Amino acid sequence: MLFLLFNDHSMTEAMGRQAGIIAREWWFFFWIAVVVFIATMGALAWALMKKTDRPLEEPSPQTSGAKYTAHEERGMTLAVGSAVGITVIILFVLLFHSMLTGKAIRRFESKNAITIQVMGHQWWWHVIYQDPVSSQSFQTANEIHIPVGEPVVILTSSNDVIHSFWAPNLTGKRDLIPGYQTAFWIQADKPGRYRGQCAEFCGHQHAHMAFYVIAEEKADFEKWKQQQIQPAQLPAPGSAQDKGMQKFLAGPCVMCHTVRGTIAGGAIGPDLTHVASRTTIAAGTLPFDHLNLQQWIRNAQSIKPGAKMPAMQLTDEDLNAISTYVESLK
Ligand code: CUA
């Protein structure tokens, strides 16, 4: 039943080809473990309940001093030997099966697959859609959109320490290693929003390093992509958003964040060009809404201590202005 509660983050709810292979592997291990458990408990129960005709201390009728007859000794040697043999065979079957699973996961090909770069940071996910035409490239954070039913290549690396990409509905864990790029395939067979989580301890806010893979129909994906490629829309002069933009651009935000189409070009924090099109803030920590955004801008340290986003000394008026602008970055 627990699986049902977390079905957007569960390896038994396979929503893609690799996850399906991994789930089959898991169930194969599970049923073998069930059989071994039942057999072991059965043997134990049998041994405990077995009635002996004589107390163990009593010398056996054939050989004085020995506890068991030669026939009994042979039987026990055979039983222990067979149990060891069966255990070794089962372990080799599991090993061989998991090697085949690993091979099946890697066996995946597609020409012109969409390639998405995912870079780990303490503690968020930098997502880059690289296109040979540079005007078609864009960056986002913590939410990875992919088209349904198509293999997608994920290229990973890390900006600081080792992180691990784990979206259990789609595939197994993959480490993100500084200075080293790895590539793997994912494919979602059903549209949905699948939760991912950093699965390698990477510091204070490791637990608050989540992401979402949003699998959507090709047309919706293309629509999303075209919207992400656009620079941020400039607010109407004199509007509340415009006042917010002036505050944003005059403040320290621009040193860490990029908003394409403005002078903000920082590369330390997430690209905010279309931040309001995302569903969460702080790497899946909070839903993207007005109050959470204000709390985050005012004092991110109260939500995610240790994150690079500093607490801001802002008046209520400035905070309202900046958050109004950020909420307009759709
Ligand atoms: Cu990143 Cu744990």
Number of helices, counting only DSSP H or I runs of 4 residues or more? 8
Question: What is the architecture of the largest domain at the second tier of CATH?
Answer: Sandwich
Compute the number of structural domains. 2
Regarding CATH, which class of the largest domain?
Answer: Mainly Beta
Distance between the termini: 37 Å
Going by helix content, strand content and strand pairing, the class is alpha+beta
- Name the helicity range: 25-40%
Which range does the strand content fall in? Answer: 15-25%
Tally of DSSP β-strands: 12
Query: What low-confidence regions span 5 or more consecutive residues with pLDDT below 50?
Result: none
The biggest sheet amounts to: 5 strands, mixed
Along the chain, the helix and strand elements come as HHHEEEEEEEEEEHHHEEHH
- Under CATH, the topology of the largest domain can be stated as Immunoglobulin-like
| Cross-sheet strand order for the largest sheet | 3-2-1-5-8
Radius of gyration from CA coordinates: 29 Å
Shape, please?
elongated
Identify the CATH homologous superfamily of the largest domain: Cupredoxins -  blue copper proteins
* Ligand kinds: dinuclear copper ion
**Average pLDDT figure:** 90
